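Query structure, 285 tokens:
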């Protein structure tokens, strides 16, 4: 069984489409955990209405503590062998769960492309080559290409992936709750410390809605930058691919430089200072 965890907060216009896409799954062995994060619109009521109609849908209502807290509650309640995270303003294809069940390989992480929706336009993120990667050294090499290659950032989100519940539980992996921007990245990076195999499939199974009023569009503040940099640095000892480590160290430096320049109102020269920092890192690495 797969547990689909959905944090819900003030998404009334989109929530029906999201939950309906789960109910329409061709494969029926799933549970959906809706965590209402203190919504002030009708989102919580909508969740309860769906739960009354289908016993596979479970609803938890909490005070507003953020998406990370909501997802952590979902993890605690999940009963499935696999966990998938879906955002409440997105939706999935009808063969989403079936695609997981059709995978016969014993792997630790399953990764697939998404369809991005911009103001009604459907744009498919570039399709990866389907493959299975085994062995820690090969996994780290693949993680580097999936993060910094043309396909986009594998760490940048938790949707469009299937995670093994046993790995999450064994290593007590949770979302860091004091980060409200790119918290997905830290969770995925934490998870990838412990994996020895990846299955990449080339079928887009997830529809990601790009909203101008979303949190992602608002950008990070100074505290977000520092927290993200600290959490990236915390993970580095678990990775050994030199190219990957070099890139991540550059990112840490970028975040600290950006905060410094913001503090002293020097954003206009930010891109030039970043180039200098990257150059120095490359010399002394």
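Result returned for the query:
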């Amino acid at each position: 069984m797969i547990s689909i965890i959905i944090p819900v907060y003030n998404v009334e216009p989109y929530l029906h489409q999201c939950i309906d896409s789960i109910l329409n799954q061709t494969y029926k062995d799933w549970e959906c955990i809706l965590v209402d994060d203190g919504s002030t619109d009708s989102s919580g009521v909508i969740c309860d209405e769906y739960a009354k109609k289908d016993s596979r849908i479970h609803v938890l209502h909490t005070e507003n503590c953020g998406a990370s807290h909501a997802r952590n509650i979902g993890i605690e309640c999940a009963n499935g062998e696999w966990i998938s995270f879906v955002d409440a303003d997105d939706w999935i294809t009808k063969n989403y769960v079936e695609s997981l069940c059709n995978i016969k390989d014993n792997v630790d992480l399953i990764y697939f492309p998404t369809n991005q929706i911009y103001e009604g336009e459907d744009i498919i993120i570039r399709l990866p080559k389907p493959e299975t990667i085994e062995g820690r050294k090969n996994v780290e090499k693949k993680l580097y290409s999936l993060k910094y290659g043309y396909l986009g950032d594998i760490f940048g989100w938790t949707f469009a992936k299937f995670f093994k519940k046993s790995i999450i539980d064994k290593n007590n992996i949770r979302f860091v709750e004091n980060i409200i921007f790119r918290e997905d990245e830290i969770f995925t990076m934490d998870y990838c410390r412990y994996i020895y195999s990846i299955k990449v499939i080339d079928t887009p199974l997830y529809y990601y809605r790009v909203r101008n009023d979303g949190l992602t569009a608002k950008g990070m503040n100074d505290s977000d930058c520092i927290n993200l940099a600290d959490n990236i640095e915390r993970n580095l000892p678990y990775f050994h691919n030199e190219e990957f480590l070099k890139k991540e160290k550059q990112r840490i430096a970028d975040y600290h430089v950006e905060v410094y320049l913001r503090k002293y109102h020097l954003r206009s020269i930010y891109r030039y200072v970043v180039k200098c920092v990257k150059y120095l890192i490359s010399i002394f690495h």
